[in-house]
Design goal:
The complex is a heterodimer of chains A (286) and B (280). Chain A is built from 14 helices and no strands. With 286 residues, chain A is mainly alpha-helical. Chain A has two domains: 213 residues, no CATH class; 65 residues. In chain B, a hairpin with a 5-residue loop joins strand 1 and strand 2. Chain B has two domains: 190 residues, no CATH class; 66 residues, no CATH class. In chain B, helix 7 crosses helix 8. Helix content of chain B is 71%, strand content 2%. The longest helix of chain B is centred in the middle third of the chain and has 39 residues. Chain B contains eleven helices and two strands; from the N terminus they run ααααααααββααα. With 280 residues, chain B is mostly helical. Classes of the chains: A mainly alpha (286), B mainly alpha (280). Chains A and B meet through helix 2, helix 3, helix 4, helix 6 and helix 7 of A and helix 1, helix 2, helix 3, helix 5 and helix 6 of B.
Chain lengths: 286, 280
């Protein structure tokens, strides 16, 4: 499997649309086209192997299922994961002769995607830095009262940043990377230490994605309880995600009503500290 | 400004403002001014409609040159609130620069917190989780499902937040960061926690190949089976908690944790703890 210049160029356009400050806006760009699952679909169509594309996308999506970018700090660049990582992983899966929907293909895809994604953060900082120049033009327009120019600054000029930091890197890396990946097969046998390690890393990496999300909601060990309840539902009771979500709603409702009861209690008995056991009884009355 | 007629932003202009935000809040992102230009472009139609002369327009636009960054989906509510405040200012409603910017600065932190855990942390993983199940085995169905469901929820959710913000004006602040807002945030964190637990157990698998064999080569201890009989998914859960501990308690960056996992994987493969069991 090889990637032609035309295919590489189309991948480059999708990379420009889908990155974190992407040209399709964040709802359609970053949160739709940038998700590896959707990237897998797009790459599958472009490279003409839908099944392998989706399978690689599914595998990589796991690593980044919970990619939060608090305050504009990124640990991985999704344009690189979805539009450089997935195409290269597809080539690798083909050249290693793996079954496209097997677990081994998935682990290979995860490792490759993460490697490319981590390196790809350079693209994110590159785009953001080049945008400073357009913002500078914007500030001068604001000073002069030339407000119409703001549209050019916000919607037009960033395409130039993306040409350099999304389009060109994707074009070159997917076109030339595919032959490098094919050469890898002869260099690294599947049962050797490097490949075994690569596959193991692929299985371990989703733990980081989940942990990043937990960081947002867990402060003290007690906050781990909902996580483990959900984990137990799925791992031991084999419930699917929708079922787990539905069950969690009842706990959310109790938590909300309890909190509201405590705060009304506090207002009524102004000054005196509210008693938890009192609140438990009150809760049923609301 | 001289006439006594009350100025009102037209529906058409509000729509325009919303769409400018929906599309352009992050397009010209930089580390210095993250969503500031997105904010400027979405306030411009409103300012142009409310003020006829250029000087008033310039004065109003200056307000929105202050730094802005939040979770953009839920953050639509803030743009809506300022649209209503700008309308009040145009009608001499006792609103000034400081009021608007104080409110913007006060809202963007809490909204980012709620938005990250509600939208990015819970909603998207849940839809993705469902979609992943549908695409298991290489079917495009899950990806298509995600594209449709997320974009409908994203667009109409943001639209709702924007217009609700405009409708409530500064009353939205109390709801968002008051007592009720806090209770909602805690309740959402519970859903988030459980869903993430479900996602982890469903989609993450860490397995060990470690086993002890007797003289005739038959294994008498398969570690993975023993661990699972204690608690299904024990090893997976342990790795996740370890990663959380390194990042949350030791302040190690995600990239360094990933590099550490590479080392763990290498050592694990060398001692026979991990073995993906592959061959050409």
């Amino acid at each position: 499997m090889t990637i032609s210049w035309v295919q590489a160029a189309i991948l480059g356009i999708f990379a420009s649309l889908s990155s974190m400050p992407g040209m399709a806006g964040s709802t359609i760009g970053n949160y739709t086209l940038g998700r590896p699952l959707v990237g897998g679909l797009v790459c599958g169509i472009i490279l003409g192997d839908l099944k392998t594309g989706i399978a690689a996308g599914v595998a990589m999506q796991l690593v980044y299922i919970a990619l939060v970018t608090p305050g504009g700090t990124v640990s991985a660049d999704l344009r690189a994961v979805s539009y450089i990582g997935i195409p290269l992983a597809m080539v690798a899966i083909h050249s290693q002769g793996l079954a496209s929907t097997g677990g081994n293909a998935a682990d290979l895809a995860k490792s490759m995607g993460t490697l490319v994604g981590t390196v790809g953060t350079v693209l994110f900082y590159g785009t953001a830095t080049m945008n400073l120049a357009w913002q500078h033009i914007g500030w001068r327009a604001v000073e002069k009262g030339d407000f119409k120019k703001l549209y050019v600054v916000d919607w037009g000029l960033p395409w130039i940043s993306h040409f350099f930091f999304s389009f060109v890197p994707t074009l070159l890396m997917t076109h030339f990377g595919s032959s490098a990946v094919t050469a890898l097969r002869t260099a690294l046998p599947m049962d050797g230490i490097p490949m075994k390690t690569l596959f193991t890393v692929g299985a371990l990496l989703p733990c980081v994605g989940i942990a990043i999300l937990l960081k947002q909601i867990v402060d003290s060990p007690i906050d781990f309880i909902p996580f483990f309840v959900g984990f137990t539902f799925a791992a031991s009771l084999k419930l699917n995600l929708v079922s787990v979500t539905v069950i969690s709603l009842i706990f959310a409702m109790i938590s909300y009503k309890l909190d509201m009861a405590i705060s009304t209690n506090k207002q009524v008995a102004s000054g005196s500290p509210s008693n938890i056991t009192d609140d438990d009884e009150d809760e049923e009355d609301i | 400004m001289d006439n006594t007629e009350i100025k009102k932003i037209s529906r058409k202009t509000l729509n325009k403002s919303f769409h400018h935000w929906f599309y352009g809040h992050l397009t010209v992102f930089s580390q210095e001014h993250m969503q500031t230009f997105g904010y400027l472009t979405s306030m411009l139609p409103i300012v142009e409609e409310l003020y006829d002369n250029k000087e008033d327009q310039e004065k109003a636009m200056k307000t929105y040159t202050a730094f802005f960054n939040t979770e953009p989906q839920l953050g639509s509510v803030i743009v809506g609130v300022t649209a209503s405040l700008e309308e009040a200012r145009a009608n001499h409603g006792g609103v000034d620069d400081a009021t608007i910017n104080g409110l913007r600065a006060g809202l963007m932190g809490p909204i980012a917190g709620i938005g990250d855990s509600l939208v990015v942390g819970t909603l998207i993983p849940v839809i993705l989780g469902i979609a992943l199940g549908m695409s298991d085995g290489g079917s495009p169905l899950g990806a298509i499902f995600y594209i449709i469901v997320w974009n409908l929820l994203g667009y109409f959710g943001m639209r709702f937040a924007f217009f609700k913000g405009y409708e409530l004006g500064d009353k939205a602040v109390g709801i968002l960061i008051g007592q009720q807002g806090k209770a909602i945030r805690k309740a959402i964190a519970t859903v988030g926690g459980m869903v993430v637990g479900g996602v982890a157990a469903t989609w993450v698998t860490v397995k060990t190949s470690f086993q002890l064999t007797n003289a005739s080569g038959k294994p008498y201890l398969v570690l993975q089976d023993n661990l699972d009989s204690v608690y299904p998914g024990l090893l997976t859960a342990a790795f996740i908690v370890a990663c959380w501990w390194l990042m949350a308690k030791k302040n190690i960056s995600p990239i360094k944790v990933m590099l550490l996992l590479v080392v763990v994987a290498l050592v694990g493969v060398l001692v026979g703890f991990f073995n993906p069991g592959l061959s050409y």
